[in-house]
Design a protein that fits this description.
By secondary structure, this protein is mainly alpha-helical. Helices cover 71% and strands 0% of the residues. It is built from 9 helices and no strands. The chain has helices at residues 7-17, 21-43, 46-63, 73-91, 98-104, 118-126, 130-141, 146-153, 157-176. The longest helix has 23 residues, at 21-43. The radius of gyration is 18 Å and the shape is elongated.
């Protein structure tokens, strides 16, 4: 399947390639909020997500000459942000202070009433272990197939499917604890 980018996107990319600072800012402004959200969902850390966003846009501007226009510029940028976020998560220590762990799970004791709101669901997703969260976000939120997630995370498709299964199971446990 072949995609074409719009004339507006194409003009913006061309201006960025000419080191037009206003065009670079326009490209950044157009995608920064959505890409920050993607980075945050993967990293579960506001500051790290901001670092990821900055690192990703540096890579984007350096590598823009390699953009082959086989997809939209937004899709190409998202792949770079996802990969940058995953690399950042892998570099993080695999422990959390006990206080953070306890505070992070206090939501189980709050009376949420008769409904599950999006804020609680977002919190539950962010409370998932990093591996589960990454696979869940990439597949269920961002729409990537298992094959691509496996490639991005350097895991097998079976592991991707297993991680997604366990992520969903853990989310069901969180939701069931609302009662």
């Amino acid at each position: 399947m072949s995609f074409t980018i719009s004339n507006t996107e194409s003009s913006l990319v061309e201006a960025c390639l000419q080191n037009d600072r206003l065009a670079q800012k326009a490209l950044y402004d157009r995608y920064k909020d959505a890409m920050y959200t993607v980075a945050y969902r993967i990293t579960n850390d506001f500051d790290l997500a901001q670092d990821v966003l900055q690192d990703a846009f540096i890579q984007i501007f350096k590598g823009l000459k390699n953009f082959r226009k086989e997809s939209t510029i937004g899709a190409w940028i998202k792949v770079i942000v996802v990969r940058t976020a995953l690399k950042a998560v892998k570099k993080q220590p695999h422990f959390s202070p006990i206080e953070d762990h306890i505070i992070g799970h206090q939501h189980k004791y709050i009376d949420w009433g008769d409904y599950l709101d999006s804020e609680y669901l977002e919190k539950a997703i962010l409370d998932l272990p990093a591996g589960y969260r990454s696979v869940f976000i990439l597949i269920e939120v961002e729409g990537y197939p298992h094959k691509e997630v496996a490639k991005l995370l350097n895991i097998s498709e079976g592991t991707s499917k297993s991680q997604l299964y366990h992520a969903k199971k853990k989310l069901r446990e969180y939701i069931n604890n609302l009662d």
